[in-house]
Amino acid sequence: MVHILLIEDNVADVMLVREALRTCSIPADVMIAYDGEQGLRLLTELNFQPDFILLDLNLPKFSGLQLLERYHAQEGPPLIVLSGSNNPSDKERALELGARDYVQKPMTWPDFIQAVHDIVRRWAGRPRPAA
Length: 131
Known about the structure:
This protein is of the alpha/beta class. It has a single domain (about 1-120), classed as Rossmann fold (3-Layer(aba) Sandwich), CATH 3.40.50. The protein has helices at about 10-25, 35-45, 65-70, 90-95, 110-125, and strands at about 1-5, 30-35, 50-55, 80-85, 100-105. A five-stranded parallel β-sheet has the order 2-1-3-4-5, with helices on both faces. Helix 1 (about 10-25) crosses helix 5 (about 110-125) and helix 2 packs parallel to helix 3.
């Protein structure tokens, strides 16, 4: 089973990620944080350690980039940005701040399923850096 922390405020996108996992027959336990503050709290105060983190950039309370500034991503589970932004500076900044990958949310359902499947295949079960 894959353990994922999804930090995403859009309920429809949360449902899409869950459905993509189901469609790909990937057994997953998905914990949801609906804003940057809640996501950071799960990662720091509760020390939740998923296999990887999916992070949207446009979040309430503080953005995905602000979360990355506060969270030392290199020390924890891989953090993958899954965002609708195709702005090159967003991608560059996210990677500078420790995101391990940046995936633009695909516009079609088949492409979205494939993107989620590729993320899970690439990042689930990878060894974490030593603390």
